[in-house]
Amino acid sequence: MKSASGPLAIRFPAKVGPEEFDTALGGYDPHSGKKRGFVFNLEDVQFISLDAIATSLCLFNQLVHQGKNVALDWSASAPSFGYCERMGYFEALDKTVEVRPERPASGLSSYEIYRDENPALLEISEVPVGDRKATKALVRRLTERLETNLDVGGNSRTVIDHVWTVVTELLSNIHEHSRTGIPGIMAIQPYNPPGRGKKLTLAIADSGVGMVTTIKESGSPRIEGLEDHEIILKAFREGLSRREPTTPGSGCGLTRCAEIAWKYEGNLTVRTMNIWTKLVTRSARTGISVGLYSNSQPVVRGTQIYFEFYLDRLRA
Amino acid sequence: MNEINPGITGIRLQAVVDGTEAWGPDEGAECFQKTAELIREKRPRSVTLDFEGLARVDSSWCREAVCALVNNFRGRVAFLVAGTNKIIEENLDTALLKQGMSMLCRRGEGEFVILGAALKPHLIETLEIAEARKEVTTTDLCRRMPKLSLQNCNNRLRQLVEIGLLIRMESAAVTGGKEFVYRSIG
User: Fold this and answer.
1) Which residues of B161-182 are buried (b: 16+ CB within 10 A; e: fewer)?
2) Which of B66, B97, B98 should one mutate to test binding to chain A, selecting the residue with the greatest count of A CBs within 10 A?
3) How many Å apart are CA A156 and CA A140, to the nearest integer?
4) Which ipTM was obtained for this model?
5) Residue A172: which of B21, B25, B71 has the nearest Cβ?
6) Is the model's pTM score more than 0.80?
7) What are the average pLDDT values for consecutive 10-residue runs of chain A, which has 316 residues?
8) Which residue of B has its CA nearest to A168?
9) Most buried of A72, A82, A253, B20 (most Cβ within 10 A)?
């Protein structure tokens, strides 16, 4: 993987989920390492999951903001290129990231031509940090698309209300805690795999200092002695916030997200800095709990949250 | 001390927020500022926060716009909510529960639910009586619950006032003295 000189070359495999993304980075920390240039090769990628899309966008944008050179080797014939182009990946990718052989031409990408036309697709959106008016417009647009396109029978209104709630709570966190000029990312993808039931996946990501860092700033005794993944669980299970103890009830947004995840037997994956934690809700008795975690991932700054709603499993 | 307006005030929240959806703590805090100013102006004993016309609000907004408002006027003004829908109730419920608060939510003629922290059965029992009658005295309650002492009845009503689910008014007793009347909010 490492070359003797020049940029660091990293090749992604055919299927890229969060695990494959981190494995490809091979434990190298692109932020603190000495390398000034990176070439990420996606030519073999046939499938890239929504959370890996969000994480990769955050990482690549963060690196160029640090003044590093980033190039993506990504042929237009690669299966994933067309999908990502249609999702608006290249619009959310910082303009200084080099795409080789070339980016889709401005104004002519399939995203720009067909935007909003496919009811099965909800494209990647940039979340402008600090611009509340633009973010409100983004949320309204999302709701309108869901109201037009989402069909889960009699539960459609309930599902949309719950998705809206998760989106607004997590977007509020971006505005409050991001502390960076790098835009956040939001993307939604419905899935309907045969025999597995309808699923809606949501990724909301920022490039700030990370939720564990901001929670630790509170100095709350409630997190004393806890490891980072335990802090994440506590944040969602009981509500933790940078604002405590001065703001009573702070952190209720995250507990609400966890409640909604439980309603859909959903999973909530949080990636922040070097931590990856998958919270699961299979047990009706224990509510949300840690399914898997790792505290040694390559650093991707900020917080990326991936939410899975199993639409056919809505609990009363 | 200024005379306090014993009336009931209703605040239609859609008139205070921008649009039919409200979310986030910043927007909640803006709503708080506006509604608190109205309340300081009118000095009511109870306020109905009317959500009619609002399609959605999230928990973080509720924390600032509702919970903080209730806490700010605790002991002086009692609050209830009305005009809610399912998602508003769910999200408000979470915000209230996080702070151990309870709030009365009117759903139509005579129907109500308690959002937030659940009430113990004996308090629900007492509240239902007070709601059905619109107002009770300790003596009234004791007549309806003969197994309870006057002190117990008084304690139950006092607790409901402290939680913010009834308001206590001073009235002239039949005997000529002073007595407290416990009124349903709104």
Assistant:
1) bebbbbbbeeeeeeeeeeeebb
2) B98
3) 17
4) 0.92
5) B25
6) yes
7) 71 94 88 88 93 95 95 88 92 95 86 76 85 91 86 88 96 80 90 82 93 88 91 90 72 90 92 92 76 90 93 85
8) B23
9) A253
